[in-house]
Design goal:
This protein has 372 residues and is mostly beta strands. The protein is 4% helix and 57% strand. It has two helices and 19 strands. It has helices spanning 7-18, 178-181; strands at 36-37, 43-53, 57-68, 80-89, 94-104, 109-124, 137-154, 157-172, 190-202, 213-223, 232-247, 250-264, 272-273, 287-288, 291-304, 307-319, 331-343, 348-357, 362-368. Strand 17 and strand 18 form a beta hairpin.
Length: 372
């Protein structure tokens, strides 16, 4: 979610409390500093968030990350991570999310998912690749979320099942706006409940900040009355990332996303451009449609001690069908970022990015781990 965060306050707090992290030491909490506990390559970090927008007014909350290994897991196994964020706004909006990625039995099993509840707003610009920035309107929606992937490792691959559940209750839309006046599937809300099969191929040398190797995820996902969904559609997607170590602590990283939706999806679940992960610089959910193709590249380099830098560029587009994606001008985004290494062994990073677009300004992002 792209929100205008007062990142100076956040970064000063985090860096002042995280500067003494050691993977071999235990940092005891005190009454005046309860933000960090690090033991046996584990990391526990809590930090405040504050932001302002016309739709929320002032808002604040806390976010955190816990990176660890289960009892009996070796240091060579992938670290598990649990993230959380809780926010509350002056307009009585609530955001709660708890994403997690857990590894068991020396990476033989992986469980990834998210629990959440949102009483919030989202921006909507219409559907298609030619919507105008001036068309932006916001809608208020309340919904619980449950997402779960359960995978089993076979060689260098994982294969398993994916489940997604969101129950949308759209409370308010702009009077005489796009959602109020046009025929758009799901504009009154409804339930997403779907099952999918996923396959992942992973040869990365590090899970959260790879310097070499490849990661591929392919998905076939179905929403249907049989899965208790109010909408009938299928999602086919492929996500490919490739990493090249060009010098000590210098890495080139590339990512490609291809997504096609078949059927009649709720508008909220359409693939989109504009997020902390995909084409940073465009506003959240700026362009959406049934098909998406996007390419991204990053150059990651050291700056000083725990600080690293990133320069990135991306291009992509959305369309009704995959074969129409390149019929119009591609959307271009670029920018720079700063990384602070919170855990050297597992390469967990705090991320600050600023992305720009050619015609629509830019956006800041503060989050954990790299975009891909």
């Amino acid at each position: 979610m792209n929100i205008r965060i007062l990142n100076l306050i956040l970064l000063i707090f985090v860096f002042s409390n995280a500067k003494s992290i050691s993977q071999k030491d235990t940092i005891a909490s005190s009454k005046s500093d309860t933000s960090l506990v690090v033991k046996k390559s584990a990391l526990f970090l809590v930090y405040p968030i504050a932001f302002y927008s016309p739709e929320t007014r002032w808002a604040g909350g806390v976010a955190g990350i816990y990176s660890f290994r289960f009892r009996g897991e070796s240091l060579q196994s992938n670290p598990s991570q649990i993230h959380t964020s809780i926010g509350y706004t002056q307009n009585k909006q609530i955001l709660f999310t708890l994403p997690f990625e857990l590894y068991f039995r020396q990476n033989k099993y992986k469980v990834k998912g998210e629990l959440g509840y949102f009483r919030y707003f989202y921006n909507f610009y219409g559907i298609g690749n030619s919507t105008a920035l001036s068309d932006r309107e916001s809608y208020e929606v309340h919904f619980p979320r449950f997402r779960l992937d359960a995978l089993h490792r076979i060689g260098k691959s994982f294969i398993g099942l994916r489940y997604r559940f969101d129950n949308f209750d759209i409370k308010k839309v702009k009077e005489n706006g796009i959602l109020a006046t046009q025929t758009i599937t799901g504009k009154s809300g409804g339930t997403i409940s779907g099952l999918g099969i996923i396959w992942q191929y992973d040869t990365r040398d590090h899970l959260y900040n790879a310097t070499k190797g490849v990661y591929i995820e392919a998905e076939v996902y179905v929403n249907d009355a049989l899965t208790r969904s109010d909408f009938t559609y299928q999602r086919l997607s492929t996500d490919i990332s490739r990493y090249f170590k060009i010098a000590n602590d210098h890495t080139l990283a590339f990512n490609a996303d291809i997504i096609q939706i078949l059927g009649d999806p709720i508008f909220y679940d359409l693939p989109y451009i504009g997020s902390p992960r995909l084409l940073r610089g465009y506003q959240d959910r700026r362009f959406m449609d049934r098909s998406l193709v996007a390419l991204q590249g990053e150059y990651r380099y050291p700056i000083y001690k725990r600080f690293q830098g990133v320069a990135f560029v991306g291009a992509g587009n959305v369309a009704n069908r995959i074969d129409q994606v390149f019929d119009s001008e591609l959307k271009l985004a670029y920018g720079v970022g700063l990384r602070y290494i919170m855990n050297r062994n597992d390469r967990v990073r705090l991320r600050l990015d600023y992305g720009r677009t050619a015609r629509e300004g830019g956006a800041y992002y503060v989050t954990i781990n790299d975009a891909f």
